[in-house]
Design brief:
Elements (H helix, E strand, L loop, with lengths): L7 E12 L2 E13 L4 E5 L6 H8 L7 E6 L2 E2 L5 H11 E4 L11 H11 L4 H14 L15 H13 L5 E5 L7 H16 L3 E6 L2 H4 L4 E6 L2 E5 L22 H18 L1 H39 L3 E6 L15 H8 L4 E16 L2 E10 L3 H4 L4 E4 L4 H5 L4 E4 L1 H7 L10 E4 L2 E9 L14 E5 H9 L6 E6 L5 H16 L4 E5 H44 L1 H9 L4 H36 L8 H27 L3 H6 L2
Parallel strand pairs: 3-8, 3-9, 6-7, 7-8, 13-18, 15-17
Antiparallel strand pairs: 1-2, 1-4, 4-5, 9-10, 11-19, 11-20, 12-13, 12-16, 12-19, 14-17, 15-18, 16-17
């Protein structure tokens, strides 16, 4: 009928491939109009260009020259995503080898075009089951393709072609892999689709099958040599269901990609587990190492803080000068002078030396510390029972002693309270007036509770016989002025001694140094663990590249039925993210379990949320980073080449 525009219009179309750098012309000067509702059979011998023509008609390939218009729209002006939209909106594909995805069920295979069309899960599931039921596969809905016969698989392919409406059914040798009975059944169904108003384009080399079409186009050496009828006719009333293609949010696409990712990963479960193992080990290492590093840091800092961070410790001997063990450069009078300085709360002299502690039949060698009454306050060391001696005891040369927890338990083994009892220090009797609370280990790891305190005067006269002291502990009032006070202490001592024969140690600076050192060690531990996480990420990329290689045909199928570049990218990136996220979660649990086990063996462990989030976030980031390259490679595959892959 005059005035009816063709649905498909090819004008002087040619296609040239390159084979080893040499141009090979497959189609030359093809002019073909196909109208809505026609049943056209394209026939020709092998190598005549039939498949290339079919790929051009289905927008899987582009002509080298000439013009292709579909429904009046120039296909050459469409980018990859708009071509994908055109395929899923207007074309249904039936392939000779069925091209079903082995990992998906029959219903899931039929649903694929509707996924990319943005249809809801429920609606597409109902339509897929309806189509399969109409094609006689109601009892095979949840089967895998390999569980079906060839004829049944081709019927699944027909249902998939109709999923989005199938305005144009493109059938490429649909009976080539079937027996005669199954082939006849497929042709009857194509005739029925034509009768329902679908435009059917059949590629075949079988002239008997071509005779079932109402129009035959013969190709020879890439040219049309015969066309049985190209006159336009008014399209028949169509009963086909037209599906509206809608856009969909990125979140919805990601959910669909995650579902497909889990399905694909489940197919190669053992390989997936091995890939997970690399991420698991990396994340577990990061979590466990950082927990141990933070625990060690906290333990060291707690020990330093237990010694006091508002203290300046003055010791005899010049810094960086080798001196004898016994140095008589500090005396108790120096402490009295320092106590009078601004911002100094108290200055406490100390003389330490080894003593033998005896109580009843128990002897114990410990450290004796002769000091003044301000020691306990300066060190923030309260008494668990009794009290610390006073300055009056110092002035009165009182034979009293205060025991550290370890020393007390060493000689009073029956659990009795030592307060009020007498002990011998180097065979000299002292009365115990207090037992200090447990202090723990020092920053150097020494037991701070393994000590006995006595007044400075008593210890100096009756135990050690020394007038000088071995240290002066200066407690400052305002820690913000610590450096200023340290300088004042050094200046005062230098003025008294007329030389620098002492060292002033700032405990706050020691804390900062220890913090920096522990941070460096923690960073080192975390870096070592991060290397294993990086290795796990490389394993993810390797497996994803293998997966892309193995699933080239699947990718071609998805592109053919309407998947855009972003869909393919999302699918493979999501697979990498699923592997990394699951491996990250299991790794976090494993790392926490390893840290718990280390704590059970007495190692210092500190649990915090930051390392867990860091490790898991790194795992997800690794998955995203190393999944991108395989995903990009998959999205760039040529659908024609992908569909031809074995």
């Amino acid at each position: 009928m005059a005035g009816v525009a063709p649905l498909i219009e090819l004008s002087a179309v040619g296609k040239t491939h390159r084979n080893g750098g040499l141009p090979v012309t497959v189609l030359e000067d093809v002019n073909l109009n196909i109208y809505e509702g026609e049943f056209v059979a394209v026939v020709g011998a092998s190598g005549s260009g039939k498949t290339t023509l079919m790929n051009l008609l289905g927008c899987l390939d582009r002509p080298t020259r000439g013009r292709y218009r579909f429904a009046g729209e120039d296909v050459a002006a469409l980018d990859a995503d708009r071509l994908a939209e055109l395929r899923r909106r207007s074309f249904g594909f039936i392939f000779q080898r069925y091209h079903l995805i082995a990992a998906a069920t029959v219903t899931e295979n039929v649903e694929i075009p509707a996924i990319y069309a943005g249809r809801s899960r429920l609606r597409r599931r109902l339509r897929a089951r309806q189509l399969l039921t109409q094609l006689g596969l109601a009892d095979r809905l949840d089967y895998r393709p390999q569980q079906l016969s060839g004829g049944q698989q081709q019927r699944v392919a027909i249902a998939r072609a109709l999923m989005n409406g199938g305005r144009v059914i493109r059938a490429d040798e649909p009976t080539g892999a079937l027996d005669s009975k199954s082939g006849a059944d497929v042709m009857l169904r194509l005739k029925a689709l034509h009768g329902a108003g679908h435009t059917v384009v059949l590629i075949t080399h079988d002239l008997q099958l071509a005779a079932l079409a109402e129009r035959r186009v013969q190709l020879l050496d890439g040219r049309i040599v015969h066309d049985s009828g190209s006159l336009p006719r008014p399209p028949r009333a169509s009963s086909q269901r037209r599906i509206v293609v809608r856009g969909r949010s990125l979140f919805a696409d990601m959910l669909e990609a995650a579902t497909m990712a889990v399905r694909s990963l489940r197919v190669n479960l053992f390989r997936t587990v091995l890939t997970l193992l690399g991420i698991m080990i990396g994340v577990a290492s990061v979590v466990a190492m950082l927990a141990l590093g933070d625990g060690s840091k906290r333990q060291v800092l707690e020990r330093i803080e237990a010694m006091g961070t508002d203290l300046l410790v003055v010791r005899p001997g010049a810094r960086n000068v080798r001196t004898p063990e016994e140095i008589a450069s500090l005396v108790a009078e120096d402490a009295e002078a320092l106590a009078a300085l601004p911002n100094v709360r108290r200055a406490v002299p100390e003389f330490t030396g080894g003593v033998v502690l005896r109580a009843g039949a128990n002897d114990y060698t410990t450290t004796g510390n002769a000091t003044t009454g301000g020691y306990a306050a300066a060190r923030n060391w309260p008494a668990a029972s009794g009290s610390f001696f006073s300055d009056d005891d110092v002035k009165g040369y009182a034979p009293v002693a205060v025991l550290g927890r370890t020393a007390a338990e060493a000689v009073f083994t029956n659990g009795e309270d030592p307060v009020g009892r007498y002990v011998l220090l180097n065979n000299i009797p002292f009365q115990v007036i207090g037992v200090l609370a447990a202090k723990g280990a020092s920053a150097a790891g020494a037991d701070m509770d393994d000590v006995v305190f006595m007044p400075l005067t008593t210890g100096r006269m009756r135990l050690f016989g020394r007038r000088y002291v071995r240290a002066i502990t200066v407690q400052v009032a305002d820690v913000q002025r610590m450096e200023e006070t340290a300088a004042a202490v050094a200046a005062a001592l230098e003025a008294r001694h007329r030389k620098v024969d002492f060292q002033v140690r700032n405990m706050a600076s020691l804390l900062q140094t220890a913090t920096a050192t522990q941070d460096t060690l923690t960073l080192l531990l975390g870096s070592v663990a991060a290397i294993s996480l990086l290795v796990g990420g490389i394993g993810v990329m390797n497996i994803m590249l293998v997966s892309v290689t193995e699933r080239v045909r699947e990718i071609g199928i998805r592109i053919a039925v309407g998947a855009r570049v972003v869909h393919i990218m999302l699918q493979f990136i999501t697979e990498a993210l699923v592997v990394s996220a699951v491996g990250g979660l299991v790794g976090v649990a494993g790392g926490l379990a390893a840290a718990w086990g280390a704590a059970r063996f007495g190692l210092p462990v500190a649990y915090s949320l930051a390392p867990v989030l860091l490790a898991f976030g790194s795992a997800v980031g690794v998955g995203l980073l190393f999944g991108y390259l395989p995903a990009r490679r998959a999205a760039r595959l040529d659908p024609v080449v992908a569909l031809a892959a074995e």
